[in-house]
Amino acid sequence: MSKKKGLSAEEKRARMMEIFFETKDVFQLKELEKIAPKEKGITAMSVKEVLQSLVDDGMVDCERIGTSNYYWAFPSKALHARKRKLEALESQ
């Protein structure tokens, strides 16, 4: 019997960000629940909770359009956020 070790929360978050950065696309929750288990090994049950934690931390953007929620994150936004943080630290 082989025990399969699950991913940590940080590993799940990193893999979820990879999905956004590799595809540079906008997703709905249902699409991510299908893609994440196949491509990154994140269980379908935890996709929503991982996604919500990324939205809460401002790493992924979420917008409600009509009755649907759309999620996206682009590499350029992450780069600009890092530059601003670096500039703030250097000024201190």
From TrEMBL:
Phylogenetic lineage: Eukaryota, Metazoa, Chordata, Craniata, Vertebrata
Gene that encodes it: LOC103609469
Species: Galeopterus variegatus
Top-rank taxon: Eukaryota
Stated name of the protein: Meiotic nuclear division protein 1 homolog
Mnd1 HTH domain: residues covered: 16-75
Pfam families linked: Mnd1
UniProt xrefs under Gene3D superfamilies: Winged helix-like DNA-binding domain superfamily/Winged helix DNA-binding domain
